[in-house]
Design goal:
Six copies of one chain form a homohexamer.
Chain A: E1 3-7, E2 11-16, E3 27-33, H1 35-45, E4 50-53, E5 55-56, H2 60-71, E6 80-81, E7 88-92, E8 101-105, H3 121-124, E9 128-134, H4 135-139, H5 144-157, E10 161-165, H6 175-185, E11 191-194, H7 198-203, H8 219-233, E12 237-245, E13 250-259, E14 262-265, E15 269-272, H9 279-292, H10 297-311, H11 323-330
Parallel strand pairs in A: 1-4, 1-9, 2-7, 5-6, 9-10, 10-11, 11-12
Antiparallel strand pairs in A: 2-3, 7-8, 12-13, 13-14, 13-15
């Protein structure tokens, strides 16, 4: 089986137990997370071969990071080494009206300070069928866009499918910079993924009539936006997650896929959240899996949405759901009855 | 006060903290649980004298198990010793659309491999007023039906009331086997308890028009089913729990009692679940207590449902609610205001 | 900046993790809490200078208590020392239909056994702008009313604003005693705070047509009650919290302020509770802050309610929200979207 | 089998995990402990019937306390109820040169404020063979000496053996008061127990040439002291623990028994301490057990010392060792090889 | 690099935190362990390719087990599936004079009930250089000796080196049975490993003048014993661990290797134990690594002893030390100075 | 009371519980630490006024850091804000022959990237009596030596005493660089502190005949070295800690002070280590306190050594001992007897 290659940053995630604020915690749960690594872990749980590419420093924390990826079935042999540090992010989990807070300490990480010479894309892609990256990686440093363009060109040359999750992060770059870079990179992309706001932030393109803060989503507007993106950039599949944030404890969750000139809207799930971080990444992974399996368009979006619904009932960033778990939910069993 | 005797298996329950999946946990919360032991613990909390009968191996884990039962006020003096092991079950708690999962490792347990000679029912019942067992115990091994029939005959001979919770477990036996065994044993039973599906699975008798997965329950159908069971097997009281599984986090919960030719339906509780495992057992305990107290039929079912509603807001399988706690909820105070 | 002085008792709060009952816990989370100390901590988080006054024994537990207050920015230099003990309270957290339970072990605490000679109010108030106390403190012992009257007189003499939260506790005194004492003390008060039941319990004055247990609140009734209190006792601002207890997991939360002859009702929040203890205290702190900032009346009540809504999403008694956190919620963003 | 009755106070013990200081802990391990309760638990583990007598308030903390005693096999049916509180003690565990610290909050406990009318000694002793108390109980309040004298007289009248552990606590009473009270009570005592300093503190009688702080113990001096006590008060058996405190982590541990006109010194154990609190109580329990079993004098002291050596390798105050465990160590196997 | 294949059982290890007894714990640390799996993990940490062979049931606990092995770099692709259960063992950690206790619940495990048909040794060994098993595996069931003989024959046919750790377990079989089976299997073995008692228990051959319980070891006796074994069974390398059990907290640790007609004794380490379980397995892994690296005989035994010394300072059964860690200790740096 | 000002870096310390390796932990204990911050916390515990100066980024992690310092009584008002990050260090605790490991992730921290303009030393020192820094701070970046020289000049101009702990860190700079910088800065220093190796590493000056790895220390050599340093650089007091590293669990600990032309050697403590990190810093704090108190030279070194002995029995980097605690140990009571 050919591999799905993902490229980006992996960080330590440090989070107080339960709903404690940072100020109250003398103990952090440690996990490892990053937008593309999350995708690889989810794909490995779906039974696909997948490798995660990044640059990490040579130290004992990196060893734990590698062991964790290995534990979840991700190939770590394509990772390169060097630089000073592995990024860290602190997550304070919110509840009800109190939002979760993320404090990033990812600057100067090995991957963000890496250069074009660090990656031999022809070698990396030699047994690959798919390449996935996100807008976060593009934003990590000034030479990341070039590195990603190297990767995209190498992938294209080998006929590898390319997917990109726009994933705009306002603390990493400005909208202007994001739009300049992402509009360029999207030209290589076959499958484009985003949340309700990403197209606006990263591409400067807006759905009509949605107000995310107020929890109002306009499915028609997103269908039309997806079509425009598809046409403007020649992207084959465009998919959006549609989150309705009732509170930090309860969210609505759905998705829309535009492909072959038509839009497909998924069923909506009302999720009592365990951990919403990584929800978008697990949607991307579900989409990639469903497309590789050549599911029907409606099934593709239903699979991606069900997968990412389940992720948000699981602690930490990784979606540990199996294909069976996702299909059970897709088939309508969200009753949560005990499985014995 | 004469004792309520329960007979069955008690296991170690090993569960990751909070909503962690087994894969994420390097630490399990340990508790002790089993359908009939759960009933005994609940009855002890209600102030009744109760003894739990089982067979356990002679080792230090058994010592902890005995101490735990003693802690909660259950008489352990009738337990017999021998065999190889105490069963274990792993519980991964679900949330929202993600179901809880139970992995049983109960095969070859001392009680499941015990034989008729292990139990001296005349002695066991010498100070008893009530005998309770469940379909799980009947399913543990091929000689369990015989052992249970011994027990039922001895109980009958002493005029002891017999209650049985059908509790069908598909991983322990087939429906065919269950129906054969349970149809026979039910003939000894005065009080029959089940959930929405048990009558179908264990007796091959169905309510009309209910779809458990879709969360639709038909109270009329259950009333009629209870009447049929009562009439067919000569059971005096038939009671069902009626669970509406909205999700792994939120459930509706009610019950129905058929007795004296009439049906009594309880109020329905919408429960934000802490731990639903043991819910059915606490219903059985509530029913037994209310019947022993000779409450009015409507109060019997309200007490049983309120008790088991409270159980599902308590961690682990044991219902630690007192009679006062249950009566407060029965009387309408489910507001959860702080008691100071 | 002149200080807000609060006076009362601070206790150790011992609570089992999560939703465990006391019976199930071999480990308690430790925090420090008390109605007035909670107000001081919240005010310090809002950036005000504040000192907490109490009497504590000289021992290592007191040292931890002082360090904790210092950590959260509260001035502890006005505390006096002596007596035998620091009070303790045990909190068993409820869920859904199961109420939380508080077991107090606060009798004989140093502050409850303190006398008028222990406090030099002129010195305590020398850099103060505001004095806050609650009905709990008044109830601690027979000489507390006198001590509080000393404090109120000294405050009045210095032109210091006085606020009082009625906070009736039935296990500390009878309604008769409370009404006698509080009716007297309220004459010194500029800002009176209470929950739905406090006016009835502490002052013998009732809103029309509310049934707290049944979750029905009558805003008109409370507006009229506030006006009556204001007029009867000459209190400038009267504010009530209005809690709708759907269950131990979900509450509605709003407030009403009567000032300048008019009533102002806040928006209502449906809170998925993390920890409701300290909710009323954080309302008081929000009110004090908003009044000191001379906000408009509607903003005053909105700020107080939003602040105390956030508190109930935070573990333990202290409200660790900042002014920015509160204003974001006031401005309508209760969506709980992740802040990165 | 006739019961061993112990009478005294049981408290909550709150201790930070591991070697954390109180100041560093936001979480306390909870256990239950008290000099006489510790003796009862150890005796129950040795297979004796034993009941603990005390007075406790009616609340949920008491329920946990009772359940804990029941778990460890102690009869709680003779406990009386009333009063305000159950005492608490905070334990900060030391290490190496840093001593452990105990902060008591036991004043005003139900038992310390109990009166002679609370206890019906004839009833309490109706199925008893032995009565045990300590100097701590005598020190709890001014009416405790009378209560204890009531108990001793009732015991004597029934021919029950009486043991007393001197257990001087300087924060409960002065040496003068202790000597007055204990010299009187010791006249009823058959078996007197103490540590190196207790005879001096409680009876004003000194061994020659020992310097406890410097870790020097003079076995001859203790033999002579025991003989003097035996002769002066007519005590049949006098036993001392002999601790050499090298540090908070490592102690020497031995004992001496004077009986029948002769002294018996045990072997010495060098213990790498897990938890030394309760060491003396477990020595008392070992002594009582060995005397009831009518072991030879040398075996009596060896059993008591080995038992209490094992206790100090076990967390919390209770000695959970069995007779087999103790005998294995007595027989010379202190190698700590894994038992499989 | 050719693989080291190990074959045996892997179990869940459940252990209370710190020094708690089973009776005191409501929470178990979970790890995975087994004599041969421990060897594989240690070898993977030394950088060798290694695969662990066993039979496991198809369930979610097995998934965690596989993920754990993968995390530590062990190839799990040769594992076969089926049967009912994965074994469990409970470990209560001792301290000082209190021994650690192991309670096994491994009966009926999938591997112990496996048959010759389950394993295709030619396939398993196709990329192998070494095969390792222990006497524990031989003792698991009556058909294990045959299975192991199949494996040994297949290994011999491929010129694969065979090592065996005698590892006698008295609760699995009698000495008579062990001697019969092991004497036969040892004929295939190139490298034989044991502790001080194994040769006596498993082969009926004794060193002169050692008394393990009393902590006296006779190096000469072991040298002579190793020579006899080597000569009798034609084993090329015979190695013993020499443990001096001062207590459950402190042990002496050394080893002896007989090879090429000469004995080599290692330096002795006095270990302040963190976790001694798995010490012998890590010695075996060290020996295998050093022999594969073709170290000099003295270095072989020094490496094995230093490796297993480090293991006993690490929690759980796996030795996570690297070759660098071991060589640093071999070179004399056991000072424990902080590595920054 | 005039303040002791310390200047340097404070980091998050992340450490697995107990003796777990990083690879085994999914949870880190969080504390805050840094050579100079550790000194300030210890001095605050001794009752001195002290302020810690550093540069920190503006974020929620910094808020926790400030709250922690405030909790322990350190003035944080002189801290400046800006830059990107707060450093992190990972600590894996060793035991016995296994060394502790520190992995630093401190590069690019706000303080290390700060510049001369960030600090207004005249303002910082306006109420100061003492200035303390370490060689670690000097090594943080290329402009740190200049910043420190600014500070030293400003301090000298105000007649403030200056102390410096050489604290060589090989991963921060080379010995050559360290010697160049430190030889220059030491000219401003009144009190010079170091461990056995610092003088060699930082100043290129060696004691005769010591072998630190082998645990051999030559007191004469250190006395002579201290004299040479004092004479060469005009330092008034020179003090060394003398650690004998028996293992990661047990260390010898002593100190030597050269002042007024004479050497004073302290008593030696054999410490069973709880946490040796921060030992040197607590020695520095003890020395500063004793010198400020104008103790006799022998008392100065005894106080510093006893203080730092106690630190090593306390978790985390901060010495939480009081002056009473230290004096008790100085006076000879290291018996670790329980303080009640």
């Amino acid at each position: 089986m050919k591999k799905v290659i993902t490229f980006g940053e992996i960080m330590l995630r440090l989070s107080p137990k339960g709903y404690l604020k940072l100020m109250q915690a003398d103990n952090f749960d440690v996990s490892y997370a990053g937008a593309e690594a999350n995708v690889s872990v989810s794909l490995a749980n779906f039974g696909l071969d997948t490798a995660f590419v990044t640059k990490l420093p040579k130290n004992d924390v990196t060893k734990v990071c590698l062991a964790t990826l290995r534990k979840y079935g991700v190939d770590v042999d394509k990772i390169v080494y060097g630089g000073d540090r592995i990024g860290v992010y602190y997550l304070e989990r919110g509840a009800s009206q109190r939002p979760s807070k993320v404090i990033y300490d990812r600057k100067y990480s090995s991957v963000s300070m890496s250069s074009r010479e660090d990656y031999d894309w022809d070698k990396i892609f030699e047994d690959a069928q798919w390449f996935h990256f996100t807008g976060i990686t593009a934003a990590l440093s000034d030479n990341m866009p070039e590195i990603l363009e190297d990767a995209c060109r190498a992938a294209k040359a080998k006929g590898i499918t390319i997917s990109c999750d726009l994933n705009y992060r306002k603390n990493l770059w400005s909208k202007e910079k994001a739009r300049e870079v992402m509009s360029h990179l999207v030209q290589y992309v076959d499958v484009l993924i985003g949340n309700e706001e990403d197209a606006a932030d990263s591409l400067g393109m807006y759905p009509a009539d949605s107000d995310v803060i107020a929890g109002k989503l306009n499915h028609e507007g997103y269908a039309s936006l997806a079509r425009q993106i598809s046409e403007k950039f020649g992207v084959k599949h465009v998919a959006f997650t549609l989150r309705t944030s009732y509170s930090a404890s309860d969210n609505g969750w759905a998705g829309i896929l535009y492909t072959g000139g038509k839009s497909y809207i998924s069923k909506n799930y009302n999720i009592h959240l365990v951990d919403r971080v990584g929800g978008g990444d697990s949607f991307g992974a579900g989409l990639i899996y469903a497309l590789i399996q050549q599911m029907e368009p409606q099934d593709v979006i239903e699979f991606a949405v069900a997968a990412s619904c389940l992720k948000q009932t699981i602690e930490y960033d990784f979606n540990l759901s199996t294909v069976d778990d996702v299909k059970r939910l897709m088939s309508g069993d969200g009753s949560g009855r005990v499985q014995r």
